[in-house]
Amino acid sequence: MEPSKAVCLLSGGVDSATALAIAKAEGFVPYALSFDYGQRHRIELEAARRVAAAAGVRDHLVLTIDLRAMGGSALTADLAVPKDRPAAEMGRGIPITYVPARNTVFLAFALGWAEVLGAWDLFVGVNAVDYSGYPDCRPEFARAFETLANLATKAGVEGRGRFRVHTPLIELTKAEIIRRGLALGVDYGLTHSCYDPDASGAACGRCDSCAIRLGGFAAAGARDPVRYVAEAGGA
After folding, report:
1. 5-232 CATH, one of 3.40.50.620, 1.10.10.10, 3.40.50.2300, 3.40.640.10
2. How far apart are CA 157 and CA 137, in angstroms?
């Protein structure tokens, strides 16, 4: 019997790289999907390509969709990325780095590709513990999209199978995610998480994403192998 295919959203960061590794460990044949959506940290696409190659995915598709046209986020518009926010502040409200409906858009494309591939499984590295308060990273969102997937597709309506949205990291801390990935052989030196890297691609060490990442590695008792700007005090 042929192994099941899975479409895995791959940003090139810690979470998506770990979710991809979990999909492989569970016996799925992974197809990676990344997006050039006008993000200011477009360098993450280079990381996504490195991670996909290292994981040996069956195919890696990079789609271009320009979310800059809508704006509304510090990741796609000329807005300052928040820096040096305390953990308590990061846990309150929805920050300006939220990209309107991004995971809904990304999963919709993943669903379309999955239907064409004959895949019933979608993997997304969303997390509702160590994250920045994004509404589309919550368990409720994943469950709702799974319901939509089975209502809105020819394959689902015809009853040929049931789409599943896998969120293997949703209840893990960043440290637990990193430990899991290291146990699966993920090379985090290939990844990129920073929202506001410098011109050379070095991570700032001060945005929410860098702070959560650095905290996760410290709590996991591991060294973060990516390069940070000197003044950030990163590893």
Report:
1. 3.40.50.620
2. 26
